[in-house]
Amino acid sequence: MQVLAVTPEIYPLIKTGGLADVTGALPLALGQRGVATRTLIPGYPVVMAKFKKKKAATQYSSLQGGKASVHAVKIDGLDLLVLDAPHLFDRPGGPYVDAGGKDWPDNWRRFAALSQVGADIASGALAGFVPDIVHVHDWQAALTLAYMRYGAAVGVPSVITVHNLAFQGQFGASIFAELGLPPQAMALDGVEYYGGVGYLKAGLQAAWAITTVSPTYAQEIRSPQFGMGLDGLINSRSTDLFGIVNGIDPEIWNPVSDPYLVGKYAPTAPKSREPNKRAVEQRFGLGRDKGPIVCVISRLTWQKGIDILAGVVDEVVGAGARLAVLGSGDPGLEGALHAAAARHPGRVGVVVGYDEALSHVMQGGCDAILIPSRFEPCGLTQLYGLRYGCVPLVARTGGLADTVIDANEAAVAAGVATGILFAPESGPALVQAVRRMMTLYADRSAWAAMQKQGMKSDVSWDRSAVKYADLYKTLLARKAA
């Protein structure tokens, strides 16, 4: 089976969050099940620097305002199609924002171009490659399905995966004339969305199947609370909606062999995590203490519930926990956490920014990872925590609820607990969860048992890859019928 994936980022080449981890790991897992994936990605500078350009697989004399070409390359086991369009992607800053953190004003054009090329490849633009399935990820690739629907690839089965419904790619109606879509596409059952153009909405409308990254989130987005204005459309497509929980790459996230760790350890020996704990204490300025270290590795935003945490840091520290925070985001939240660190020297440490190596050491050395998200489509950091014996302390929402077994009395007695869940997403509930954690932590044998149980959890892509492969087969059968 041949699959064309279209995504704005992929690990290890370009990453801003969990999307890249998924698009980097899923093709490898699918490959073990007879599904070959070629992934179309933008030619950002960091991507183009990874290979020497050879003869292009296809070229464009004009693609959204400039020349472009597609290059077929293999990097780190991934079969990639790289869209080299310097006028769109050869620029400093991140994939979506400039060096000052502001959205590129031509994002609509950049990802329309990516989508146009995706649809062209779906219709056979590359010699020797005609995909059986097209699988697109998030709003930046979603318009691929609109171009397919109104073009030559209308009969190719397609899947869209929503990693976070909050990011939708909404633009003014004035851009429609430059998208190259037929006039009938600017309609309620097409790309039109509240008078403008909705990229994600267009993909949801056109896809043969819609997946989200956890079963609970698939149900949550059918409600007005989590549907972000798209719940009506999603409910109308409910028979085509599937929740498939994310996995992680067990080779990259492996405490036995992780090159980032100060001290490596086996799942049967969580006590060997201690050198990593010492490293966390040093990096975050935390004093040597018997209290557990709770880490936060996250975007510092409202969605992630960081304002909830900022409001109760004093109570968290008062309960006996130490806090290590790695992330960046809302300047006000960054400031609030820095203020908390100033109030509690040696008890609260904050590092603003993104540091892949440090995140591994934190998972390998901290006692618990706190994720107080208001909504969480899947979440990956709790899966890393399970793998590394860093006990998840998480809000009962989305994929967090699907992947963590709460340490209630029955679960602890049965030896199946893997973490601590709390609801609602509020300060008092979070503090109560920390107090529950402290009680469990005081029972060293019970805590070690929970760590080991979490480390035994199957957080790989194995089961999820089977579900994706089965979904692809179902769509192909529908096409044949």
List the helices and strands and how they pair.
Blueprint: E1 2-6, H1 18-31, E2 36-42, H2 45-48, E3 58-60, E4 68-75, E5 78-84, H3 86-89, H4 107-122, E6 133-137, H5 138-149, E7 158-162, E8 170-171, E9 192-193, E10 196-198, H6 199-206, E11 209-212, H7 215-220, H8 224-227, H9 231-236, E12 241-243, H10 274-284, E13 293-297, H11 306-311, H12 313-318, E14 322-327, H13 331-343, E15 348-352, H14 356-365, E16 368-371, H15 381-388, E17 391-395, H16 398-403, H17 409-414, E18 420-422, H18 427-442, H19 444-456, H20 462-480
Parallel strand pairs: 1-2, 1-6, 2-5, 6-7, 7-11, 11-12, 13-14, 13-16, 14-15, 16-17, 17-18
Antiparallel strand pairs: 3-4, 4-5, 8-10, 9-10
Helix pairs in contact: 4-5, 5-6, 10-14, 15-19
Quick rundown:
With 481 residues, the protein is α/β, with parallel strands linked by helices.
Characterise the protein shown here:
Helix 4 (107-122) crosses helix 5 (138-149), helix 5 (138-149) packs across helix 6 and helix 10 crosses helix 14 (356-365). The chain has helices spanning 18-31, 45-48, 86-89, 107-122, 138-149, 199-206, 215-220, 224-227, 231-236, 274-284, 306-311, 313-318, 331-343, 356-365, 381-388, 398-403, 409-414, 427-442, 444-456, 462-480, and strands spanning 2-6, 36-42, 58-60, 68-75, 78-84, 133-137, 158-162, 170-171, 192-193, 196-198, 209-212, 241-243, 293-297, 322-327, 348-352, 368-371, 391-395, 420-422. Helix 5 links the parallel strand 6 and strand 7 (158-162). It is globular. The protein has 2 domains: 2-247 and 462-480, Rossmann fold, CATH 3.40.50.2000; 270-456, Rossmann fold, CATH 3.40.50.2000. The chain is an alpha/beta fold and 481 residues long. A 9-stranded mixed beta sheet has the order 3-4-5-2-1-6-7-11-12, sandwiched between helices. Helices cover 39% and strands 17% of the residues.
